[in-house]
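Researcher: Quick test of sequence recovery. Tokens follow.
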């Protein structure tokens, strides 16, 4: 008689569907979800919904009907069959890493063979981060601004700190261009945006000496970030030993970028004459 596994909490199933149903890489395509649901005999309850909602509704409905999580386990096992990723092994690893987070909450993991296997159970986000070993989990725990990861989500999933740092810093420059309308880049962009007399952006009331000093300091901090974390990777191949970054340093940078984006959230435009 086949073992019946206890039902998984809706939030865990939702987390699994968020990973497998991502709209971009490495998420499953709509056609892949079609085939897997059909293969496993799971009804596609909401075929017109987004991939994540469609998958969540299908798996939750089947789990509720069976009063067991077997259907979710089977879906993950079929979706993670190594043979599906012979041409793109990085996609397998990215999906596996992403699934490690919600699966840790039910004491499971995806093995090298793509099977759902037992693991230590996490009860807190700190334990999830420790068990999953995931940079993105730690960024979530720190409450990093969404604009930070918006430009480097794929690099984070690929575990490429070198390129994640580069793309996140480029994303900061892109936000400055969007706010100011300037096509410039790097230090020139900062000087244009925050020039004391002509700059189009202000991060405070710009009335007192303290506010003016803070405004100038903010501009200098932006230029320091570009000079330290954007320019070296732009001119150094990752394969060389000329420029490297550790995970603790990357996390600290992402926190700094988060601070900068939060200040830009409240930045005001200076009316042009």
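Model:
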């Amino acid at each position: 008689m086949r073992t019946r596994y206890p039902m998984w909490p809706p939030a865990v199933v939702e987390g699994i569907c968020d990973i497998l149903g991502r709209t971009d890489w490495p998420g499953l395509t709509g056609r892949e979800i079609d085939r897997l649901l059909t293969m496993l005999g799971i009804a596609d309850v909401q075929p017109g919904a987004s991939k994540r909602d469609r998958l969540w509704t299908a798996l939750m409905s089947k789990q509720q009907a069976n009063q067991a999580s077997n259907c979710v386990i089977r879906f993950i096992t079929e979706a993670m069959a190594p043979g599906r990723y012979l041409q793109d092994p990085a996609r397998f690893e990215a999906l596996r890493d992403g699934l490690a987070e919600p699966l840790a909450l039910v004491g499971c993991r995806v093995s090298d063979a793509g099977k759902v296997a037992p693991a230590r159970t996490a009860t807190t986000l700190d334990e999830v981060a420790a068990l999953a070993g995931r940079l993105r989990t730690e960024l979530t725990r720190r409450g990093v601004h969404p604009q930070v990861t918006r430009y480097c989500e794929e690099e984070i999933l690929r575990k490429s700190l070198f390129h994640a740092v580069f793309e996140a810093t480029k994303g900061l420059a892109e936000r400055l261009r969007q706010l100011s309308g300037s096509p410039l880049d790097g230090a020139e962009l900062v000087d244009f945006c925050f020039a004391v007399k002509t700059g189009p952006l202000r991060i405070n009331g710009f009335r007192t000496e303290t506010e003016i000093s803070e405004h100038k300091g903010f501009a200098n901090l932006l230029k320091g970030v570009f000079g330290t974390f954007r320019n070296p990777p732009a001119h150094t191949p990752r394969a060389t030993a000329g420029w490297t970054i550790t995970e603790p340093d990357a996390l600290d940078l992402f926190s700094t970028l988060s601070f900068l984006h939060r200040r830009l959230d409240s930045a005001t435009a200076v009316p042009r004459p």
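The beta strands are 108-110, 116-118, 201-202, 268-269.
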